[in-house]
Design a protein that fits this description.
It is built from 15 helices and 17 strands. It has one domain (3-475): 3-Layer(aba) Sandwich (Rossmann fold), CATH 3.40.50. Helix content is 35%, strand content 17%. It is an alpha/beta fold. β10, α4 and β11 form a beta-alpha-beta unit. The strands form three sheets. Strands 1, 2, 3, 6, 7, 8, 9, 10, 11, 13, 14, 15 and 16 form a 13-stranded mixed β-sheet that branches. The protein has a two-stranded antiparallel sheet with strand order 4-5. It has a two-stranded antiparallel ribbon with strand order 12-17.
Length: 476
């Protein structure tokens, strides 16, 4: 690295890039296996932060060709216009990946930083059985992956000023599991003071475990591993842990082998308790994609979520009764397109919309969107909006988007980033995006040409109001 390209933020040395400075692989915390994270103090000697750290431990999966076998990777990455003492708004992004896979380094924040004069932080957090396995019967704290996210946000509060960021103006954003994480943090016992604004993309509150399922999954891990004590679990190799997780993944019907759990401690005791929990009075953007569930009808992701009509209707009946099942059946006729709508609503769209609905009803500034720009094969499916917001070049992003980021796609990407940046900077996405409130319930529709729709899918929204659906996970 050339000396003139070195930029210091305290003892952290980053690399000057076009329009910004990047610091990669900064350690924000340490944690032994199944222990709470401990924040790391700023280093006393210079540390070169020019290389992304490895993805945190995770099994080979739908989007990961090889497993990662590094447990000690509680790292974050920072992009900033300069480490110059300015107080720029900060966006912390929490990646998705079904609480099983993903890494902060997949998201390059330099474009947001340069275009918006903001500081962007992306993070790793513990995943799968290591972050969300329920071994509370052996004295292990639950929701360690969420505890990692909390630790990262606290590290940012304490340290971001050295990188040109404002510790009093932090927006947390996330997609899928990242969005669900944000909703959980907003109803957690640690919710006050974690962040000042939030952007939730496709997910809120419902796609996690309640205690009985989580306990059974933890017990099943112990059975497979032959471990009946915490000491024994700590002696198990990482490869064995991930192999057990993969085996249980095959045993779980339409669900995940490990996820956050409503535990009555960090989180409320149940989904219904979470729905009733008051959220912080902060501005939020919350939205989803029109064809969310179509991604989960593909061979590599089938079985991660309940997508078949019969299974979803059984969940509706079991959780809300036969009368509501009949109402839902009438709203979603048994056609291919309506069954896709049913799957999208029950897994992602309605939970996110209703989260915004409750937040707005409490008098908090809220904005809602729906992403409608369709790709070639899967429509406006889950995660496709990420390929517009972030500079992604891998093959899957091209396939999701349905083409190069040129022409009207490029213009849409610029518009979306502008709204996100406006919100990070001011707590308002812009004058041409009305709040989600009152009778109007204005929703921004992102497409070749954006528009505003008042209460789109209003009959479905009205029917679901107050009836969250928890996709129960059962072992086969």
């Amino acid at each position: 690295m050339n000396a003139e390209r070195n930029v210091k933020a305290g003892h952290y040395i980053g690399v000057a890039r076009r329009g910004c400075v990047s610091w990669r692989g900064i350690r924000y915390a340490r944690a032994a296996r199944w222990e709470l994270p401990t924040l790391c103090a700023a280093p006393q000697d210079d540390v070169h932060c020019d290389v992304h750290g490895p993805p945190i431990a995770q099994a080979k999966g739908a989007f990961l060709p090889m497993p990662s076998l590094v447990e000690d990777s509680l790292l974050l990455n920072i992009d900033s216009p300069a480490a110059d003492g300015a107080r720029r708004p900060v966006m912390v992004f929490i990646h998705g990946g079904a609480f099983l896979f993903g890494t902060g380094s997949d998201y390059d924040g330099s474009q947001f930083a340069e275009e918006g004069d903001i500081v962007v932080v992306t993070i790793n957090y513990r995943l799968g059985v290591l972050g969300f396995g329920d071994f509370s019967a052996l004295g292990v704290p639950n929701n360690l992956g969420l505890q990692d996210q909390i630790a990262a946000l606290r590290w940012v509060r304490e340290n971001i000023a050295a990188f040109g960021g404002d510790p009093d103006c932090i927006t947390v954003a996330g997609e899928s599991a990242g969005s669900i994480s944000i909703s959980l943090l907003m109803v957690s016992s640690a919710r006050e003071g974690l962040f000042d604004r939030a952007i939730l993309q496709s997910g809120a509150l419902n796609l996690i475990h309640e205690r009985d399922i989580s306990t059974r999954l933890g017990q099943r891990h112990c059975e497979i591993l032959g471990a009946s004590s915490l000491d024994a679990l700590r002696q198990v190799s990482l490869e064995q842990l991930l192999d057990a997780q993969t085996r249980i993944d095959a045993e779980v019907e339409d669900g995940l082998p490990a996820s956050p759990v409503y535990d009555g401690d960090l989180l409320p005791a149940s989904l219904s308790d979470a729905v009733r929990t008051e959220t912080p009075s902060i501005p939020i953007i919350a939205g989803s994609n029109r064809d969310e569930v179509r991604l989960f009808a593909t061979p590599r992701t089938r079985g991660m979520l309940p997508t078949e009509r019969a299974k979803i209707m059984a969940l509706v009946r079991d959780q809300h009764g036969a009368a509501f099942e009949a109402e839902i059946a009438s709203l979603y006729p048994d056609t291919k397109s309506d069954n896709f709508n049913l799957g999208s609503d029950t897994n992602f769209s309605m939970s996110t919309r209703l989260f915004a609905e409750r937040h707005a009803a409490a008098g908090n500034p809220s904005w809602a969107y729906r992403f409608d720009r369709a790709g070639l094969f899967l429509g406006a499916t889950h995660a496709v909006e990420l390929t517009y917001l972030w500079p992604m070049t891998f093959r899957q992003s091209f396939m999701l988007r349905g083409g190069l980021l040129i022409g009207d796609r490029k213009r849409l990407a610029k518009r979306m980033r502008r709204y996100w940046i406006n919100f990070v900077r001011s707590g308002d996405p812009g004058a041409d995006w009305p709040r989600y409130e009152g009778e109007g319930r204005a929703v921004k529709l992102f497409d070749k040409r954006d528009s505003i729709a008042n209460d789109p899918d209003g009959a479905r929204r009205s029917a679901w109001a107050g009836r969250e659906l928890l996709p129960a996970r059962s072992l086969r």
